[in-house]
Amino acid sequence: MNNKRDKGQPANPWVKQTGPTEEETAAAEPELPPSPWSLEVPPRPSPWTEGGSAGAGDAWGNTGTADAGAAWGDTGTAGSGSGGWGDTGGSGGPAPGPATETSSAWGTNVGPPSLRRPEPVKKKKSGLPPLLIPIVAGVAVVALVALGLVVLTRGGDKATPQPSPTAIVTTPSPSTYSPPPNAIAVEHGVYVVPVNGWSVLASETKGKQLVTYAPNREPRAFLWVRQKQNTTARTFLLGIVEGETENEIAQLGNIRNLACPKDVLVECVAITYTSTSKGIKVQGFVEAYRRKDGVVTALDFRTRSDYAAKAEADAAPMKQSVIDSL
After folding, report:
1. Of the N and C termini of the chain, which has fewer Cβ atoms inside 10 Å?
2. What is the helix (H) or strand (E) element at residue 268, kind and residue range?
């Protein structure tokens, strides 16, 4: 063995070297500066997250507070400084330009609120033009005032219920009527004079009823003189005709106002009717006369239709005798 070894052979780690090798004795070449592209670049801290203190120095030799400089050689408010990229900075605030959301390894940054004025909220337009709104309001106020005035003015004009007509009682002048000898007294100075073939129905106690009979003693017609006080002639007449035609098929005429034949009379009315009673056709009339003293005298005439001509002829003078005595 000798101390020589082949060139290019690796040194034996088990042999102690006594002098510099040929490679070591070769002229040392100047060392090149490290490439910034091969260095590990630390992540740049976000200006919107809590950064805390940067410590005594960072990977690029920068020192200062969290706002003094960043890993890119920026300097804070303490003065100027240089980084690996030779950038100089001012204050430790965020980089110029609007901050936006980024997908970085250390989180999501949220930009500051926008300083732009928000869009005004559009109001819903009303169905009426603005100029018509005060006009419509004025018309409504006028209408309400007018309605209130109408209610106030009519409040005291309520119609009071009118009492039913009553007979006006006055004292008539003394009658100059002188009844004939065959006159039959009714009441209140009223008389009736019967004609031949008519006689008084004795069983009737209200007023006087004159009846005519057929040869078989069946009644063929009657004239009933009735009286009532403190009522009207119309009311008394309606009560009589309703009683005569009760339970019958009747056809009533209209109530007629008669010309009162004497000054002592104040109300004179009449009505006619036809009816069917037990299969027999009948007809009749009712006349009522009210005097000033309130006495109402009614003439209730009723006859079979087949005997109507003769019965009406006989009833005419009897009716006149009653009117003469009123």
Report:
1. N
2. strand 265-277
